[in-house]
Amino acid sequence: MKADTRLFGEIEIEDAKIIYLEQGIIGFPDLKHFTLIFDSEREEKSSIMWLQSMDDGQIAIPVMEPSGLIADYNPTVNNELLEPLGELNSENMYVLVTVTVPKEIENISVNLKAPVIVNTDTNRGCQLIVEDDYAVRYQIYDLIQNGKKKAGE
């Protein structure tokens, strides 16, 4: 599948790497096909990736794995909402949270209330609102800085 993207120019993504979100994402319910873009040349996986729409090249949303920030992130989800994704287990469930990067970088945050859950076996995903009392704007600047300091030790 080809897309002419705002951030990455023209890209071609193998069908096997297209994530299908039947309900779209919050704010963009008509966008159904996405892919994850990250810097594959880095030795370590980049913490921030892009959820690039293949339906509208202008839409790319920064995302990251919450487990790198909050070890005990385990949202409560109505299992009925996950049924369209296929059978999920710890091996094939991939959880991402959206990142908001404002002008003041110290206010960078992630949305823990509305994760994107992907079944990596079926490449089907959904974004949903979790039942837990997680923050919509969970500040992560200090966590990132502390992680950088630990890596340099």
Report on this model:
There is one protein chain. This protein is mainly β and 153 residues long. It has a single domain (2-98, 114-127), classed as BH3618-like (Roll), CATH 2.30.290. Helix content is 10%, strand content 30%. It contains 2 helices and 11 strands, in the order E-E-E-E-E-E-H-E-E-E-E-E-H. It has helices spanning 79-82, 141-151; strands at residues 2-5, 9-12, 19-21, 33-37, 49-53, 60-64, 93-100, 109-110, 116-119, 124-127, 138-139. The protein has a 7-stranded mixed beta barrel with strand order 3-4-5-6-7-9-10. The longest helix is centred in the last third of the chain and has 11 residues, at 141-151. It starts with a strand and ends with a helix. 24% of the residues are buried. The model has no long low-confidence stretch (mean pLDDT 90).
